[in-house]
């Protein structure tokens, strides 16, 4: 088990490459970032090779979105990778723009806006909490009927700004009024898509929390009070140790979830739910503790700690831990009841 989820040399190399790509994206406009990421193969890393992608798996992709969280990348990368994966799964669809950077694809992870009329699929309603909605070109979402994509330039589509907690990726609500949509996946694809999204979003949150925790450890080791390092204070050392435990719990959970998703294991959906709920529960606390350890300086704009907290809190609000656990418990109870 431990050997299976240990970081491989390939994963380390992918993460290092991604980190260099993200560093080069600083101060670029969104479509410039898309072009840069596409040139480095990151947008289409899970897309089918026949469609120009790299054909890699979730065990590689989560390392990339983890690095994106660490870099506070101003781009909806988890959404873009998942959208490109789904858009290339069906023959006859030309959505190469999702992987080549010519269009920005984002995702609504929770939407009940699809209907069918006269044999055509239409979307009506509100797609809430969409990452980078103000600058996206296409919106991808899943439902019990399958996977769908809508061109955000279509008539009947409008975007309203949400509270901009995440400063790098402003969220918004997309309002649709009888907008034609294209089906790009089956209901089974929608289930896999949701689990993949949980893995990639959790990894992004993990990266942001890890950077904040590392900053807290460095500060505590070098800041001296009463003649000894701040880390010499028992309460500070205990908080740092607990945060390390929280990070390890999430890290091992998301690593296993990616392995289970890649292998199509029976417990894949449950593993993804567990990783996502742990992240929503534990990672905000890690970043909040990092801010607290820095004292008054931790609350200033001079440090990026508040940006990490904004990123983690926003992602946690999309899939609250209590909601995930409730749905997981209901699914398991139903399965056990059917098994007799």
How would you describe what is shown here?
- With 340 residues, this protein is α+β, with helices and mostly antiparallel strands.
- Helices cover 54% and strands 16% of the residues.
- It is built from 11 helices and 10 strands.
- The chain has a 4-stranded mixed β-sheet, covered by helices on one side.
- A hairpin with a 2-residue loop joins strand 9 and strand 10.
- It is globular, with a radius of gyration of 20 Å.
- It starts with a helix and ends with a helix.
- The mean pLDDT is 89.
Helix/strand-derived class? alpha+beta
Strands ordered across the widest β-sheet: 1-4-5-8
Question: What oligomeric state is this?
Answer: single chain
Give the overall form: globular
Count of helical stretches: 11
């Amino acid at each position: 088990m431990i050997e299976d989820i240990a970081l491989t040399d390939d994963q380390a190399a992918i993460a290092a490459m991604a980190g260099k790509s993200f560093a080069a994206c600083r101060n670029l406009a969104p479509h410039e970032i898309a072009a840069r990421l596409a040139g480095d193969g990151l947008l289409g890393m899970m897309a089918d090779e026949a469609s120009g992608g790299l054909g890699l798996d979730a065990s590689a992709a989560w390392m990339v979105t983890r690095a994106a969280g660490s870099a506070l990348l101003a781009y909806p990368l988890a959404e873009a990778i998942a959208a490109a994966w789904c858009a290339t799964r069906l023959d006859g669809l030309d959505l190469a723009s999702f992987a080549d950077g010519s269009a920005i694809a984002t995702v609504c992870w929770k939407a009940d806006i699809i209907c069918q009329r006269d044999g055509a699929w239409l979307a009506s309603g509100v797609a809430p909490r969409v990452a980078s909605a103000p600058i996206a070109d296409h919106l991808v979402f899943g439902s019990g009927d399958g996977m769908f994509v809508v061109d955000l330039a279509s008539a009947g589509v409008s975007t309203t700004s949400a509270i901009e907690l995440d400063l790098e990726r402003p969220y918004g609500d997309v309002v649709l009024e009888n907008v034609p949509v294209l089906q790009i996946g089956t209901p089974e694809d929608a289930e896999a898509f949701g689990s993949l999204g949980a893995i990639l979003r959790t990894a992004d949150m993990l990266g942001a929390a890890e950077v904040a925790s590392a900053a807290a450890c460095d500060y505590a080791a070098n800041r001296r009070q009463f003649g000894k390092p701040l880390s010499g204070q028992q309460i500070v050392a205990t908080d740092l140790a607990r945060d390390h435990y929280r990070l390890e719990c999430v890290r091992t959970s998301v690593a296993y979830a990616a392995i289970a998703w890649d292998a199509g294991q029976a417990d894949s959906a449950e593993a993804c739910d567990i990783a996502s709920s742990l992240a929503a529960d534990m990672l905000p606390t890690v970043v909040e503790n990092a801010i607290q350890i820095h004292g008054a300086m931790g609350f200033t704009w001079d440090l990026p700690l508040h940006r990490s907290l904004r990123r983690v809190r926003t992602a946690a609000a999309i899939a609250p831990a209590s909601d995930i656990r409730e749905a997981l418990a209901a699914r398991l109870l139903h399965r056990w009841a059917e098994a007799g």
